[in-house]
Amino acid sequence: MIAEAPTLPHILEVQGLTRYFGGLAAVSDLDLAIRPGELFGLIGPNGAGKTTVFHLISGVLPPTKGKVLFGGMDITGAPSHSLARQGLARTFQIMALFQSFTVLENVLLGTYGIVRVNPLAALFNTPRSQRIEVEQRERALQLLQFLGIERLRDEVARNLPLGHQRILEMAVALAGSPKMLLLDEPFSGLSVEEIREMMGRIAKIREGKTTIMLVEHNIRVVMDLCDRIAVLNFGGKIAEGTFAQVSQDPEVIKAYLGTKRYAA
Ligand SMILES: Nc1ncnc2c1ncn2[C@@H]1O[C@H](COP(=O)(O)OP(=O)(O)OP(=O)(O)O)[C@@H](O)[C@H]1O
Ligand SMILES: [Mg+2]
Question: What is the sign, positive or negative, of the torsion defined by CA atoms of 150, 152, 155, 156?
Fold first, then answer.
C-alpha cells in the first residue's frame, strides 16, 4: 500500500521575519501561518510593510532576520524563479508585464523556467519539444478563457487598459499552475464593475484550491473575500483573525480602519 503524503497544517509559514532598510525596520519580527486553500488578507496603512513582506516571501529581497517555510521547506532567500518552480507565484503592485508582447506571449513567458524543456531538444525542434509547445499554448489559452480575456489574446500588452493589464498579470502568475499566489493590490485603479468582476475571478482561482495571500486597501473587498486577515502597522503585526474580529480591535481602528463601521 502506498502511504499518502501527510497534509501539512500550513502551506506557508513566516517566523520572526525582519527587514531593515538602513535604520528603518520595514518588517519587524513577523510571524504568519497560512493554511492550504485559505484566502488570507494582509492589510495596513501605506508604508506598513505589506509589499516588503511579499518581497521577502517571494525572494525579491533577502530578510535581515527570520525564516520563510513553504510546504514545510525552508525557502528563506531563495530566488523567485526557483520558488515559481516550487509553486509559489506573485503579482506586483506596479505591474511587471512585457509591454511590447501580446497577451498570449506574456502568458507563455510565464510558463518558461517552470516547464523544463531541454534547450538542445528545443533547438533541434524535436517531437517532444514541439508537443510541449503545443500543450503550453493550449494551457495558456484555457487560462485566458478561465479569466475571461481570451478575446484579447493577440492584443499588445501596452495597449490594454489598466483593468485588462491587471487580469493579464494574474494570468501570467497563474501560468505555472502555482499552489500559492501572492496578490499585491490587484484591485487598485479598477472601476466598480471591474472590481466586481475581479472578485469573481479571485473566488474562482480559490475554488481551484490555490491558496491566496492578498494585500489590498479596498476594505469591502477584504471583508467579502478573506477567511482571515493580519493587520500590519510600522512593520509589526497588530492583529490577526476574521474580519469581524480584527475590525473590532481598538488598535486596528486607530491605526487603519478609523471609526467607519463595516457591517458584516
Ligand atoms: N527599497 C527600499 N529602500 C528603502 N526603504 C524602503 C524600500 N522599500 C520600502 N521601503 C520603506 O519600507 C516601508 C514599508 O514599505 P512597503 O512598500 O512595504 O509598504 P506597504 O505596506 O506596501 O505600503 P503601500 O500600502 O503604500 O503599498 C516604508 O517606510 C518604505 O518607505
Ligand atoms: Mg505596497
Answer: negative
Range of the domain at 235: 1-87+178-264
- Strand, coil or helix: what is 50? helix
36 lines ligand 1 (CB under 6 A): no
Q: Which of 176, 196, 223 is the last residue of a domain?
A: 176
Q: Is the CB of 50 under 6 A from ligand 1?
A: yes
Rounded Cα gap, residues 214 and 102, in angstroms: 27
Query: For the chain, first and last CA: distance in Å?
Result: 48
Cα of 65 vs centre of ligand 1, distance in Å, is: 17
Q: Measured between alpha carbons, how far is 227 from 184 in angstroms, rounded to an integer?
A: 17
CA distance 184 to 180: 13
Same domain membership, residue 229 and residue 191: yes
* 190-207 pLDDT tens trace: 999 999 999 999 999 999
Residues having C-beta closer than 5 Å to ion ligand 2: 50-51, 93
What global pTM score does this model have? 0.91
